[in-house]
Specification:
Helix content: 25-40%
Structural class: alpha/beta
Strand order of the largest sheet: 10-9-11-15-16-17
Strand content: 15-25%
CATH class of the domain at 210-421: Alpha Beta
CATH architecture of the domain at 210-421: 3-Layer(aba) Sandwich
Distance between the termini: 24 Å
CATH topology of the domain at 210-421: Rossmann fold
Length: 431
């Protein structure tokens, strides 16, 4: 499999049929793009051929970040929870930022949405998905006003922690901001304007909530790379990676009670399921990861990069029927990882490699994880926003659209300012 030379390869590759880490999802086109002056141009989610059960109406999760908790300057917290009504069919919004709170809001416009990207993409044409998300966003007046007020006050220094405990997989990075009050003066998707960090509450007794403090992750770089994703291994070679032959070796390394680890990188096929035995990353199930002994994650300041489809998603096990959200990102954080990047959708193998290459380069320069993802999305969105409606339906426009969909499929869990210290060993690595 040929590895793209850089992020530009995603945007200019003329090949339409591409191998995927998961199933073949096809390509997407988008209507109604903004003009070239939009720095965070729109993105439409890709179609996913997924037929999976919806999350339960009620999700159980530990207490969110407490209202009024101490927050660093420029950091805001958006709390999303299931509203206290008998049917459990509405969500409640509340936000914290020193001097600029979002009061608790519940209304009929906050009924449970069916907006998980997989569900949308199986029911709608690609350009309809973007319209659906924008239409849904534009009815959330209080949230839009709060976000624009935050941007007007903090500008580029604003970072947002999203503490969503609904389990409904709402794609908040794709919340549409109309630009009124924004320092950018143009509309765009939230994840291309603001560094966004997802919070997942710790469930394991004694686990530390890694979303409340900044961490500087440094140490050994260990990786397992599936043979079908060999390009990832070549990229990692620039950072003195210690390759591991399989996922058993990864678990063996995590059992070692030392503080030498800095980054764990896993590149493999991912499968989403409503069974904890069948929700897998490579041949590792989410149940196996949850139950593993991983002393190294508790001792060291470890960052985890999961370049595998669905690795950022959650599931509810049908047999357990215990209303407990489970996922690979959640499990790693619960074990003690300081931050996790994973994917919420299928991504092409070559595209995944190029995205990882770009993100690792940004992290190696000391860019915080949430900002690295925001900057990557913004760059790809800018390329896309230069296309007009006709161009979006042509081959190059389809490729650029797909690159943007892939970029927004990556989510970050942890504290916005957490960094990863990587030593570059390859002089030819991108600057």
């Amino acid at each position: 499999m040929t590895e793209p030379d850089s992020l530009t390869a995603i945007l200019t590759d003329s090949a339409v049929a591409r191998p995927l880490m998961c199933r073949d999802t096809g390509l997407a086109t988008v209507d109604d793009a903004p003009g070239p002056d939009d720095p965070a141009g729109p993105i439409e989610p890709e179609p996913l051929d997924v037929d999976e059960p919806a999350a339960p109406a009620v999700a159980l999760d530990p207490v969110a970040i407490a209202p009024g908790a101490r927050l660093d300057k420029g950091i805001a917290v958006l709390r999303v929870s299931i509203a206290d009504d008998p049917a459990g069919t509405r969500f409640q919004l509340a936000g914290d930022c020193p001097g600029l709170p979002l009061p608790d809001t519940v209304s009929d416009r906050q009924r449970r949405p069916d907006l998980a990207l997989a569900d949308l993409s199986s029911d709608l044409r690609p350009w309809e998905v973007g319209r659906q998300l924008r239409s849904w966003s534009e009815t959330k007046d209080e949230l839009t006003e709060w976000l624009n007020a935050l941007l007007a006050r903090h500008g580029e220094s604003l970072r947002l922690i999203i503490d969503d405990r609904t389990g409904w997989e709402i794609p908040w990075e794709l919340f549409w901001l109309p630009g009124s009050g924004s320092p950018y003066g143009a509309p765009g998707w939230l994840g291309a304007i603001v560094p966004v960090a997802r919070r997942t509450a710790p469930r394991r007794p004694g686990a530390i909530d890694q979303s409340t403090d900044r961490h500087d992750c440094c140490g050994e770089v260990v990786a397992y790379v599936d043979a079908a994703m060999s390009g990832d291994g070549e990229v990692l070679g620039r950072y003195g990676v210690i390759p591991l032959e399989d996922l058993d070796a990864v678990l063996d390394r995590l059992e070692v009670d030392d503080d030498r680890l800095g980054l764990i990188y896993l590149a493999a096929h991912g499968t989403h399921s409503s069974s904890g035995n069948e929700f897998t990353l490579g041949d590792l199930s989410v149940f196996e990861l949850e139950q593993a002994e991983v002393a190294a994650l508790r001792r060291a300041r470890v960052f985890v990069f999961l370049n595998a489809c669905h690795s950022a998603r959650i599931m509810y096990d049908d047999r357990n029927n215990d209303l407990t959200p489970r996922g690979f990102a959640r499990a790693f954080l619960d074990h003690g990882a300081r931050g996790v990047i994973g994917t919420s959708t299928p991504v092409g193998v070559d595209e995944a490699c190029a995205i990882a290459e770009d993100l690792l380069c940004r992290l190696a320069r000391g860019v915080p994880a949430a900002t690295a993802l925001r900057d990557h999305r913004r760059e790809v969105a800018r390329h896309h926003s230069m296309l007009n409606r006709r161009q979006l339906r042509e081959r190059d426009g389809v490729q650029r659209t797909q690159a943007m969909l892939d970029a927004f499929g990556y989510l970050y869990f942890g504290y916005p300012d957490t960094t990863v210290r990587l030593a570059t060993t390859d002089e030819s690595a991108p600057p």
